[in-house]
Design goal:
Blueprint (H helix, E strand, L loop, with lengths): L1 E7 L5 H13 L3 E7 L7 H8 L15 H6 L2 E4 L2 H5 L9 E4 L12 H26 L1
Parallel strand pairs: 1-2, 1-3, 3-4
Length: 137
C-alpha cells in the first residue's frame, strides 16, 4: 500500500480536493493525506464542488506539513509553485511529483462562474490522480 501526500500552500482547496479524489479513486489501495505550508482551513466551495460528484470532504482537516508526514509518504505531490518553492527537503526514497494546478479560490463575477472554476480544477485533479494511481499499480 502506497502512502500519498498532497501538499499546497494553504491546504484549503487543491490538496483537499486531491485527498478526497485519491481516497475515492484508490478504493483503499493507498493511504492518502494532505497538508499545507500555512494551512488556512478547508474551503466550503471545495466541499460543495466535491459533493457535486458524490465525494464528501467535509470531515477533512487542514493540517501543517510536518517532518513526520514527509517521512510517512512514499509519494509527495506538490500542487502549486508556492508550496514547491517553500518545500523542505524530501527524505531519500520518497518520490516527489510537482503539478502546478491553478488556484480556483479567487473572486468570480457569479456563483455559477465560481462553481465552474472549482469544477475545472476538480476535473483536472481527477485526470492527474487517475494517471498517478495507474503508475503506482
Amino acid at each position: 500500500m502506497a502512502n500519498i501526500l498532497f501538499v499546497c500552500s494553504g491546504n484549503s482547496v487543491r490538496s483537499q480536493m486531491a485527498e478526497g479524489l485519491a481516497r475515492h479513486l484508490s478504493n483503499s489501495t493507498c493511504d492518502i493525506k494532505s497538508a499545507g505550508i500555512t494551512p488556512i482551513g478547508v474551503n466550503p466551495v471545495a466541499i460543495k464542488s466535491m459533493g457535486e460528484i458524490g465525494i464528501d470532504i467535509s470531515s477533512q482537516t487542514s493540517d501543517f506539513l510536518t517532518r513526520d508526514l514527509l517521512d510517512w509518504a512514499d509519494y509527495v505531490i506538490t500542487l502549486c509553485n508556492s508550496a514547491m518553492t517553500r518545500f523542505p527537503v524530501i527524505p531519500p526514497g520518497t518520490k516527489h511529483i510537482h503539478w502546478d494546478i491553478p488556484n480556483p479560490d479567487r473572486n468570480y463575477d457569479s456563483d455559477e462562474l465560481q462553481a465552474k472554476g472549482f469544477a475545472r480544477i476538480r476535473n483536472l485533479l481527477r485526470e492527474k490522480i487517475d494517471s498517478l494511481l495507474k503508475e503506482i499499480e
